[in-house]
Design brief:
By secondary structure, this protein is an alpha+beta fold. It is 41% helix and 27% strand.
């Protein structure tokens, strides 16, 4: 089972393009309210905040392939297989509209962020992953107690 390529691509490359287009279109069209300069400042501030957020986390986004014995991490052009016993923690991030997981490996600084296939239920406070990859993650978390 492999991470969703389109969501991984969007998080790594599409998010800043979408924010740039949002800011550019809002500047070009101009707001129709009674205080357009404040609306423009708010939109640009939101856009800059999203860009800063993206710059902080985009290096941690990886493509993950899960197997019954190993996890394969495809990150920054390299591919590495790790046994399930080498995983320090693996959990779904809360308050996101798509299932995004954080993976930490024992005796290694940093973490990896990855998505699963888009089979989930969206709640107001997050998402419940219904994909086969999500089920495998839940089973391995019970088996390895991380």
């Amino acid at each position: 089972m492999t991470s969703n390529l389109s969501l991984t691509w969007f998080i790594k490359y599409g998010l800043p393009v979408a924010v740039f287009l949002l800011i550019a279109l809002s500047i070009q069209a101009g707001p129709v309210t009674h205080r357009p300069e404040y609306d423009l400042l708010i939109l640009v501030g939101i856009g800059c905040s999203i860009i800063l957020f993206w710059m902080t986390y985009q290096d941690h986004v990886a493509k993950i392939r899960l197997g019954s014995q190993t996890i394969t991490i495809i990150h920054q052009g390299g591919e590495e297989s790790i046994a399930w016993s080498e995983i320090e923690s693996l959990h779904q991030l809360l308050f996101l509209d798509i299932p995004v997981y954080e993976l930490k490996v024992k005796n290694r600084a940093g973490y990896y962020l990855f998505t699963t296939q888009p089979h989930y239920i969206h709640f107001g406070f997050g998402a419940r992953d219904l994909s086969g990859m999500g089920a495998l993650i839940r089973n391995k978390k019970k088996e390895w107690n991380f």
